[in-house]
C-alpha cells in the first residue's frame, strides 16, 4: 500500500509540464553576399519586323571544299518584313542556342528548285548571306516535315520575291516624283531664268532652250540610282 506522502505517476508527470514550453525564436537577418542587377533587354532587331511566315525545318549548306551537303541547323525559318521599308528577308536560328544560320534578303534572281528525290525539300542560291557576319555566297537546301509545309514555304518565298521586286522597281518613280515637285515650287531665281529662256526661245529659231531638257533625264537617273542604293541595307540579326 502506497504511502500518502509518496507521489503518484500522475502527480510526477504534472510537475514537469513547464519543461515543454518553447522558447521564443530569434529573428536572424543575413545580408546577401552578391546583389543581382537587372540586365538590359537584348534586342535582336526582329522587334522592328513583322513575321509573315514561320515553319520548323532543317537547313543545309553545300561545302565546296568537301563536295558535300552539311547540316547548318534545325529551327524555325522566318520571312520577316521590316515595318518601315517593308523589305522581306529570310532569318533562321538554331534551336536552343538561337545562333543565326540563315540571314539574307529574298531577291528576284533567286530560283527555288526542288531537291532531287524529295517533295519536301528546296534548294536555292544566295549571293549575300550574312549569318556569319560577312556577306558570302551560299548554296542552301531546306527540308520540311512534309510536302504540304514545303509548298507553303514556296508560296511565301515567291510572294516575298514579287514584293521586293516591286520595291526595287519603285525606287526610280519616287525620284521622278521629287523632280516634278521641285518644278512645281521653284525658287524665284529659277522662275526668272525659265521666263528668260522662254522669251529667247520665241525670238530665236535655234532650239537653244531645249538643250537643258536633254540633261534633265540624266540628273533624274542619277538621283534614282542614289535612292536605290540607300534602300538596300545589309541584313542585321
Automatic annotation (TrEMBL):
Region of interest called Disordered, as start-end residue ranges on this chain: 1-28, 166-237
Bias (Acidic residues): 181-192
Cellular component aspect of the GO annotation: cytoplasm; nuclear pore
Database matches in SMART domains: RanBD
Positions of the WH1 domain: 44-164
InterPro entries with a match to the protein in the record: PH-like_dom_sf, Ran_bind_dom, RanBP1-like, RanBP1_RanBD, WH1/EVH1_dom
GO biological-process terms attached to the record: nucleocytoplasmic transport
Residue span, RanBD1 domain: 29-166
Protein name: RanBD1 domain-containing protein
Taxonomic source organism: Geranomyces variabilis
Upper taxonomic lineage: Eukaryota, Fungi, Fungi incertae sedis, Chytridiomycota, Chytridiomycota incertae sedis
Amino acid at each position: 500500500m502506497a504511502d500518502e506522502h509518496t507521489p503518484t505517476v500522475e502527480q510526477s508527470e504534472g510537475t514537469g509540464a513547464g519543461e515543454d514550453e518553447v522558447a521564443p525564436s530569434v529573428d536572424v537577418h543575413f545580408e546577401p553576399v552578391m546583389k543581382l542587377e537587372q540586365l538590359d533587354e537584348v534586342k535582336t532587331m526582329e522587334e522592328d519586323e513583322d513575321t509573315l511566315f514561320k515553319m520548323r525545318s532543317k537547313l543545309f549548306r553545300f561545302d565546296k571544299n568537301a563536295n558535300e551537303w552539311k547540316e547548318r541547323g534545325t529551327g524555325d525559318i522566318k520571312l520577316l518584313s521590316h515595318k518601315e521599308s517593308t523589305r522581306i528577308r529570310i532569318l533562321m536560328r538554331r534551336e536552343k542556342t538561337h545562333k543565326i544560320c540563315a540571314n539574307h534578303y529574298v531577291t528576284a534572281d533567286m530560283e527555288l528548285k526542288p531537291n532531287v528525290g524529295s517533295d519536301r525539300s528546296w534548294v536555292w542560291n544566295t549571293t549575300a548571306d550574312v549569318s556569319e557576319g560577312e556577306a558570302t555566297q551560299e548554296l542552301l537546301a531546306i527540308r520540311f516535315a512534309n510536302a504540304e509545309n514545303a509548298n507553303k514555304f514556296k508560296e511565301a518565298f515567291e510572294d516575298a520575291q514579287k514584293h521586293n521586286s516591286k520595291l526595287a522597281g519603285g525606287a526610280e518613280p519616287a525620284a521622278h516624283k521629287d523632280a516634278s515637285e521641285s518644278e512645281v515650287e521653284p525658287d524665284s531665281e529659277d522662275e526668272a531664268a525659265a521666263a528668260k529662256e522662254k522669251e529667247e526661245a520665241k525670238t530665236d529659231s535655234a532650239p537653244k532652250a531645249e538643250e537643258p531638257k536633254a540633261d534633265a533625264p540624266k540628273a533624274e537617273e542619277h538621283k534614282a540610282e542614289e535612292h536605290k542604293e540607300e534602300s538596300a541595307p545589309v541584313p542585321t540579326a
